[in-house]
Amino acid sequence: MNVIPASEAGATAALQVDGLRFAWPHQAACIDVPRLRIAAGESVFLHGPSGSGKTTLLSLLAGILVAQAGSVAIGGHDAATLPARRRDGFRADHVGIIFQQFNLVPYLSALDNVLLPCHFSALRTRRATMSGGSLREEAARLLGRLGIGAPLRGRPASALSVGEQQRVAAARALIGRPALLIADEPTSALDDDNAHAFLDLLLSECGAASALLLVSHDLRLAPRFARSMAMADLNPAARPEAWRWP
């Protein structure tokens, strides 16, 4: 695993991106990010139109996709050169993801879905139990904070409403305080009041432990974040004049 020197990444960098490039087969580059740095505990709002590469970028940052060039370092470590299995382990340790489609296991209970990252990460397990409680107690605490009461926690994910599933997905991403939390349109299934309440809790739970990168089309959320950026400014390939069709 490559380590980004502290003089370049900064001692508190949760995410450092340099020269990141990616293209789908037979297409021009859709991702070309010269540089992005997010400090530990920082909250960043990213917006852009459909087709501008937001979800592709998040997949690259999470290590789900591997770029053709450049580096993505989390906590100073670039996992791109690791074999796929070790890269999956690195992601489980250091990245929490709220997927746009939630990706819950439908037959598992809400509580067991939240516990899933800890089955793959001893580091997340240790962090989740640092207060002296059990994993299940920490999962229940997060669900409670997100408005999933005790009667719902034992229900299979498939029996929950869309809004409830979205909050379960958030609790799963938060458990064990990963260094980087990535959220892809996490308020899309919530009305305005619940969206702002959800965001309050998300920012509070991230605190100083987890950096938050949230993608949304809802620009009304932007003032809640320490920093806001447009996809076209971060990624020149997202500008309409740069688009190329196969």
Topology diagram in text:
Blueprint: E1 2-3, H1 6-9, E2 13-22, E3 31-39, E4 43-47, H2 54-62, E5 69-74, E6 77-78, H3 84-94, E7 95-98, H4 110-120, H5 122-128, H6 135-145, H7 150-153, H8 162-174, E8 180-184, H9 192-206, E9 211-215, E10 227-230, H10 231-234
Parallel strand pairs: 4-9, 4-10, 7-8, 8-9
Antiparallel strand pairs: 1-6, 2-3, 2-5, 5-6
Helix pairs in contact: 4-5, 4-6, 4-8
Poorly predicted runs:
1-10, 241-246
Backbone shape: globular
In CATH terms, what is the architecture? Answer: 3-Layer(aba) Sandwich
Largest sheet: 5 strands, antiparallel
What is the SS-derived class?
alpha/beta
Specify the CATH homologous superfamily.
Answer: P-loop containing nucleotide triphosphate hydrolases
Provide a count of the helices: 10
List keywords for this structure.
disordered N terminus, Rossmann fold, disordered C terminus, 246 residues, single chain, 10 strands, alpha/beta, five-stranded antiparallel sheet, globular
